[in-house]
Amino acid sequence: MQFTRKFEFDAAHTLSKNFGEKEAQFHGHRYRVDVTIEGSIKEGMVVNLSELKRNVQSEIIDVLDHNNLNNYIKLPSVENIAIWIWDKLRNKLSNLAEIRVYETPNHWVTYKGEGLLK
Fold first, then answer.
1. Considering the domain boundaries, does residue 71 fall inside one?
2. Could you give the CA distance from residue 54 to residue 49 in angstroms, rounded to a whole number?
3. Most C-beta atoms within 10 A of its C-beta, which of 7, 16, 48, 104?
4. How many CA atoms lie within 13 A of 24 on its CB side?
């Protein structure tokens, strides 16, 4: 069974001109991050929700919220943000199955632990 919890944070970044003139300017987004845990039900739950929230808050939200993503991620594309988040959470959350990062309500990436930060 899979359990998903949604989190949000506000942050800004700039990308290279290869992404377009608008993206090369410093700009911000309200990011949404869905963290999915996969496992069997133990004591009625797949995941301890308090533990999940505590880890995401300390490792992701407290670091990135109202910050410049370029200070933490070399090229903070939504793809690389998802990989960065995965890397921060993979040892904290057993059975981490998927990270989904929405840069806008109209586009997002889904990451399941494959690949390297680019």
1. yes
2. 8
3. 7
4. 6
116 within domain boundaries: no
Number of domains present in the structure of the chain: 1
Rg of the chain's alpha carbons, rounded to an integer?
Answer: 15
* C-alpha–C-alpha distance, residues 79 and 73, integer Å: 11
- Distance (Å, rounded) from C-alpha 97 to C-alpha 109? 14
Only one residue has tokens 């930060």, namely: 117
- Distance of alpha carbon 95 from alpha carbon 55, whole angstroms: 14
Residue 80 is assigned to a structural domain of this protein: yes
CA of residue 52 relative to chain centroid, distance: 13
Task: Indicate the pTM of the whole model.
Answer: 0.91
Per-residue model confidence as pLDDT tens digits over 77-118? 999 999 999 999 999 998 999 999 999 999 999 999 986 555
Q: Which domain does 76 fall in, by range?
A: 2-111
